[in-house]
Amino acid sequence: MFEATLNEARVKPAQIQDVVVGNVQQAGAYHLPARMAQLRCGFPVDVPLRAVNRQCASGLQAVADVATDIASGIIDVGMAAGVEHMTSGGSPNDGTMAVPPIDMEQVMQHDKARDCLVPMGVTSENVAFKYGVTRERQDAFASWSHDKALQAQATGAFNSEIVPVRLQVTTKDGGTPHVVVVDKDECPRSGSTPAVLSKLKPVFKPDGSTTAGNSSPLNDGAAAVLLMRRSEAERLGAPVLGVFRGFRAVGVEPACMGIGPSVAIPALLKDVGLTMRDIDVFEINEAFASQAVYCADVLGIPTVPGSRKLNPLGGAIALGHPLGCTGARQTATLLHYLKTLPLSSGKNGKLGVVSMCTAGGFGAAALFEGG
Prior knowledge:
globular, alpha/beta, 4-stranded mixed sheet
């Protein structure tokens, strides 16, 4: 991913002044495997790297960190990335997450601290129950996400942002190894109609509404974004897709963490002096249909088929949610999509927001202006 991003921008590894990688689950700090990958693809040893963890917003936090370092004058050119190997579940050995020692007796005596341990699927059920998001709306939203993603794949809308991966595969019967090229996400499923999705059983509560069909699937993924000062981009001849305009993270109740975007986005827009009407596209992560529907309702974003305001190329329910990767992936998707939009009348640019909820009770949002 590092190498492909540099090649796309026609920038040499030695011209990068810092690398920030978002990651959530892998045991210990992810800086070691990221550092090894960085060196393997040709970065000089004097280019530093660090890892960040803001749960599901880790990839977006990496983007914000690099952007603010540039704005403050610390660096001129940096790379932000996000990666998650959901298959391992956190530990390369036994599939469990490594958790440091915690005084659980004290944690359990404090309501809010205890709620940080609520499983994510249960927080989805909490949002659905508390805010009246019906199973029917969740399944309809999930179906819509798949439809958009499948249409985007069919029209090649993702081609400019995807790096094909070549894998050598050996058949189960021991046949001759052959090369397989993976050049599209495997999660979008045709035939995911509301009627089909309605037949799936709830996963987290016997009488609940959160199912495997209206939740984001578990998959692996990585994404990278190259950021630099505009004068430096012009000097290097690097293409400019957009401009980072702001970032905001806000805490919410841990037991209903899914509502995060509904508070982070308004806070961000207030900071930059904009309103919801000023934004052309919202990329809001679909951890669960329950929270995505709620956030869209509160923010006044249409969720009817035909609308292109929210996740126009599909969201995480169709594409998957590799935790640390998602924010960087959404940024890449948004900037490439904004490039296809006509310039709005009376505006200097096309505006898009990337946002998501995170475990522990947070919402994060970033504003980008497309070229």
